[in-house]
Amino acid sequence: MIAAALFVCFLVLFVLGTPVAVALGLAGTLAIYLADLNLLAVPTNAYTGIAKYPLLAVPMFVLVGAIFDRSGVAIRLVNFAICLVGRRAGSLAAVTVLVSMFLGGISGSGPANAAAVGGAMIGALSRAGYPRAYSASVIGAAAATDILIPPSIALIIYSVLVPQASVPALFAAGMIPGLLAGIALLVPIFYTSNKHGFGLAEKDEPLPPFWKSFREAIWGLMAPVLILGGMRAGWFTPTEAAVMAVVYGLFVGFVIFRSLTLKDLYEMFVEAAEISGVILVVVALASIFGWAGSTLGVFDRAAEAIVGLGGGEYATLALLIVMLIVIGMFLDGVSTFLILLPLLMPIAAKFGWDPVWFGVLLTLKIAIGQFTPPMAVNLMVSCRIAGVPMEATLRWVFPMIGSMVLVLVALIAFPDLALWLPRVLGY
């Protein structure tokens, strides 16, 4: 009865429109009260849930995403990507994917990435002859790659919840699947653009000067080298890398491009504080829910029930894929991890799945859900910016979903797509 109360309370509150964090905290508190556990466990677990060193990286990576957006790095990367891709049908949509992959890895939030890239690219895509519904589909799908490509806030949260998977190992493991996901999106984009003649209006426009574009983009291109290379060289931890990325971004914005002002700095601090506050409140209140479920043995019994359904390892994995893609339509990656990992990790342990591989697999599933209608969070943002209803994107977005599902199948069939790089790097 108490286990049922835990989940029923959460579902009822969620359906009623209660914020996810509040629904998790109230459901956990109710279960603790009904089980006659000490109610002091509520504030204690809320505190211990966020009193973890790796979580210090979250506000820093959020801040560096805002810095790179406001400093003009994004438009310089667009110009350089155009030089690389050229002017042909589908090229500007491909540039949108490439820029989304780069900026998304810094911002760590799919909806935030969709908003930033959408604001910069919707107008240019429309002028080049792309329908707005198609542009919204491309932006929503491209933004989904952000939680795979390091540095990823979702992977940081996963490492906090699953201590067996370190942040450097997860960052390395997400690199190849994240790049494959972005490349997979390019296939339907070029096919559809050539078939319908999208982007032909840009063919006659001159390319930006290559070396000039490269010199302007080099400061943005060096950011991943600084973050990932510094961690690999042992110069700093992932948390310290986030701080270094902020310092680097401020240096580029104030000294190199001279595009930032003190007013921008204040607004970026406020923006980063608001976003980080939301994330950490969710983490804190979800910790209450997780502690209640673990203490009462709810998650272990649920895991045993799922495994006991029969069908073996791959049938269970297929069930989890469907479940997570559906849940990913409604929730961001961080919330999904916080809610479901206490249930999923016992299942992974029973089948002996590698926690690093499993983390990347879960993240890819959630990424697909974030641009799968009818409740795709990334697509909601891009459709709002483009001024189109979500149903207008259906014919365009499903081929992109199919291409990402193929990457998911490849990751299941060949786990070394995620595990090879961490092994080579010694993680």
Automatic annotation (TrEMBL):
Main localization of the protein described in the UniProt heading: membrane
Residue ranges occupied by any TRAP C4-dicarboxylate transport system permease DctM subunit domain in the UniProt entry: 7-416
Domain of life of the organism encoding this protein: Bacteria
Compartments in which it is found: Cell inner membrane
Positions of transmembrane segments: 51-68, 89-106, 137-161, 167-191, 217-235, 241-260, 272-294, 314-344, 356-376, 396-421
Record membrane topology: Multi-pass membrane protein
Keyword match Transport: yes
Signal peptide boundaries: none
Keyword Thylakoid attributed: no
A GO term for molecular function: transmembrane transporter activity
Keyword field: Cell inner membrane, Cell membrane, Membrane, Transmembrane, Transmembrane helix, Transport
GO CC terms in record: plasma membrane
One Pfam family cited in the UniProt record for this chain: DctM
InterPro entries per UniProt: DctM, TRAP_DctM
Quaternary organization: The complex comprises the extracytoplasmic solute receptor protein and the two transmembrane proteins.
Function text: Part of the tripartite ATP-independent periplasmic (TRAP) transport system.
Family of this protein: Belongs to the TRAP transporter large permease family.
Protein name, per record: TRAP transporter large permease protein
